[in-house]
Design goal:
The protein is α/β, with parallel strands linked by helices. It is built from seven helices and six strands; from the N terminus they run E-H-H-E-H-E-H-E-H-H-E-E-H. The chain has a domain of 168 residues: Decaprenyl diphosphate synthase-like (Undecaprenyl pyrophosphate synthetase, 3-Layer(aba) Sandwich). 40% of the residues lie in helices and 13% in strands. Strands 3-4-2-1-5-6 form a six-stranded parallel β-sheet, sandwiched between helices. The structure holds farnesyl diphosphate.
Length: 254
């Protein structure tokens, strides 16, 4: 298999990525960025300090993913269940896009990154949406890595809505029941147009999927680490990629 030396950041070579195989980079990597609260508690800090530190980690991992040729990086940033958290924490999480994009957008544009959102606008405050939509607009012609924020996203809601859309199309005579296929269903999901994730990373030691891309993860390779998201570095990311490259994906075959 061909080998290529990868470079990242400001052209500093990182040993741990130099042994990755160029022709077996996962196209789509999804990350459940968990453990911000515990990271903060361990340091005697408020939970929101953990989210802030987690936000700072987003660009680092995005650039690492881009440098090795990942095409889509989906980050689970806010779930439909996260509304149950205390209001001040929800408010803080909703303020992060306004902080993140003005801070990082220029570098992301320079890197040809395109921002996308998977999730529902309903319920998200106007100021948060404005920041996200502005970033989507400013990067819409970029052709590099797609940085896809799963924000106000939940998989069961997504699947229920896709089902509803399909039933509606059947009622309207646009779709015959016998023409219902996996593809027709996928096309009605929030992730329509994106390939399924090849690799899912979850930080913080929790071994759950937590209502994340239940349909899309059917054949995704899973990789878990005990590290909390704010301490998950580029080298940990490359470690996950390396392990992915050692897996044999059989998709149910032999
Ligand atoms: C889970 O950790 C993390 C979240 C609910 C939020 C993740 C968001 C970010 C990392 C920043 C996203 C950045 C932008 C720009 C939107 P937790 O709070 O559940 O941690 P715990 O399990 O230790 O309490």
């Amino acid at each position: 298999m061909s080998q290529k030396k990868f470079w990242f950041g400001k052209k500093k070579q990182v040993d741990s990525q130099s042994d990755l195989t160029e022709d077996n980079i996962p196209r789509h990597v999804a990350i459940i960025m968990d453990g911000n609260g515990r990271w903060a508690r361990r340091r005697g800090l408020p939970r929101v300090a953990g989210h802030h530190s987690g936000m700072k980690n987003v660009k680092k991992i995005t650039i690492a993913a881009d440098d090795i040729g990942v095409e889509i990086l989906t980050l689970y940033a806010f779930s439909t269940e996260n509304w149950k958290r205390p209001q001040d924490e929800v408010d803080y999480l909703m303020s992060l896009p306004q902080e993140f994009f003005p801070l990082e957008i220029e570098e992301l544009i320079e890197k040809n990154v395109r921002i996308r959102m998977t999730g529902w606008k309903e319920g998200v405050p106007g100021h948060t949406l404005e920041a996200v939509e502005n970033a989507i607009e400013r990067t819409k012609h970029n052709t590099g890595l797609i940085l896809n924020f799963a924000f106000n996203y939940g998989s069961r809601k997504e699947m229920t809505e896709a089902m509803r859309a399909m039933v509606r199309d059947v009622q309207l005579g646009k779709l015959k029941p016998e023409d219902i296929t996996e593809e027709e269903y996928s096309n009605r999901l929030q992730t329509s147009g994106l390939p399924d994730p090849d690799l899912l990373i979850r930080t913080s030691g929790e071994l759950r999927i937590s209502n994340f891309m239940l349909w899309q993860l059917a054949y995704t390779e899973l990789w878990f680490t005990d590290l909390y998201w704010p301490e998950f570095s580029e080298n940990h990311f490359f470690e996950a990629i390396r392990e992915y490259q050692n897996r044999v994906r059989r998709y149910g075959g032999l």
